[in-house]
Amino acid sequence: MKQLLVLPLVLLIPLCRPVVADDAPLHVELDSSEVPHLTEWGEDAKALVVRWHPRISNLLATKDVESPRRITLRLRKSDKRVGATSGTTITISSSWIEKHPEDLGLVLHELVHVIQSYPSGKPWWVTEGIADYLRWGIYEGKEQKWFPRPKEKQGYKKGYRVTAGFLLWLESDIAPGIVKKLNTAMRNGKYSDALFKMETGQSLDELWDRYMVSK
Ligand SMILES: [Zn+2]
Fold first, then answer.
1. How far apart are CA 196 and CA 205, in angstroms?
2. How far is residue 79's CA from residue 60's CA, in Å, rounded to a whole number?
3. Could you give the residue range(s) of every CATH 3.30.2010 domain in the chain?
């Protein structure tokens, strides 16, 4: 009799799992209609988005914020700009792909922007620094010494790779987890330079000066 009771319980377990929105499928639409000869490159770029979307979403996870799960990847016939993101649409220019077909990391950078979903994107150097930190530091796996480090006051404001290297140093040497905290502040519209002082006990400018002389 006891054995008979076990079976229905086992069958009930899957029904008891909470339904979470994260189970919604990721839908990436590739539009290469303007440049059909680049469709194969577009398929590789789409595969990168599918593979990295959950990883980037987890690295930038904020309570009660869901990553967009419908993304359009558009290859545009153009010789202007390299790549751009507007909302959940990533647009890449054909001339750049033709000259640099190996540059799939560009798509990773734009994917970060889709997931960041910052209301204002200001200050821009934080937005671009985080995108390049995830692209060059995490996706490409570049070492600290690879990142450019201009010897000037407030060099962190240069954004992109410069800020990315600074963030990598902060993560490894000073304040592990600071990128996630910056990300949450940016998402909530609560970023301020004071966040650096709160997390490390030193001001942003003091940290930059320290980074300048670090190994
Ligand atoms: Zn960008």
1. 9
2. 32
3. 25-116
Cα(78)–Cα(82) distance, rounded to whole angstroms? Answer: 9
Cα 130 to ligand 1 centroid, rounded to whole Å: 9
- Whole-number Å distance between alpha carbons of 52 and 114: 12
Ligand 1 mean position, distance from CA 7 (Å): 54
Low-confidence ranges of the chain (pLDDT < 70): 1-23
pLDDT digits (tens, 9 = 90+) for 113-159: 999 999 998 999 999 999 999 999 999 999 999 999 999 999 999 99
pLDDT one-digit tens code per residue, 159-173: 999 999 999 999 999
Ligand 1 centre distance from Cα of residue 107 (Å): 10
Just give the CATH number of 25-116: 3.30.2010
The rounded Å distance from CA 109 to ligand 1 centre is 6
Distance 16 CA to ligand 1 centre (A): 42
Minimal CA–CA distance to 44: which of 56, 32, 62? Answer: 32
What is the CA(118)–ligand 1 centre distance, in A?
A: 12
Neighbours of 159 (CB within 10 A): 18
